[in-house]
Write a structure and sequence with these properties.
The protein has 138 residues and is an alpha/beta fold. The protein folds into 2 domains: 1-57, 2,3-Dihydroxybiphenyl 1,2-Dioxygenase, domain 1 (Roll), CATH 3.10.180; 60-138, 2,3-Dihydroxybiphenyl 1,2-Dioxygenase, domain 1 (Roll). Helix content is 22%, strand content 30%. It is built from 3 helices and 9 strands; from the N terminus they run E-H-E-E-E-E-E-E-H-E-E-H. The chain has a 4-stranded mixed beta sheet, with helices on one face. A hairpin with a 2-residue loop joins strand 3 and strand 4 (48-54).
Length: 138
């Protein structure tokens, strides 16, 4: 059965103000909007569609792990450490809340950042080999 699952097509994210959130994703992350109404917007980036859904106050996609630490539920990939540092500096210079670079005991480096609604995201410097092959990225 798992052979039928080909990719993740859509990620749903809770937001407080749909218009403001959609603008943030466009301005800060280079997304583009394909649909917007009062309750939701669809923004596209990183080969995915993100549904920004109006949610209750303080609702985020984050979760608390067994140690009581807040965790992200989504990791973006960039092609190497240089690209990671460029993205980090771009986000930081735009006033995006970013965490420090981390070495988590596996190849590459990571950092986290937050959107304007407190949704936490991870960025990893190691682009998957399957993605590189599919899109002919060196």
């Amino acid at each position: 059965m798992t052979k039928n699952l080909l990719r993740v097509g859509t990620v749903y994210l809770p937001v407080q103000r749909v218009d403001k959130a959609a603008d943030w994703y466009v301005d800060k992350l280079g997304a583009y909007v394909t649909y917007k109404d009062d309750n939701k917007a669809i923004v596209n980036m990183a080969n995915l569609s993100f549904f920004l859904v109006k949610a209750k106050e303080k609702e985020t996609a984050n979760f608390i792990d067994e140690r009581g630490e807040e965790c992200f539920s989504l990791t973006f990939e960039v092609n190497g450490k240089d690209e990671l540092e460029i993205l980090y500096n771009e986000l930081a210079s735009q006033g995006v809340q970013v965490g420090p670079f981390e070495n988590r005991g596996h190849g590459g480096k990571n950092f986290i950042f937050y959107d304007i609604d407190g949704n936490m995201f991870d960025v990893w410097s190691e682009l998957s080999s399957v993605f590189k092959e599919k899109f002919d990225i060196g």
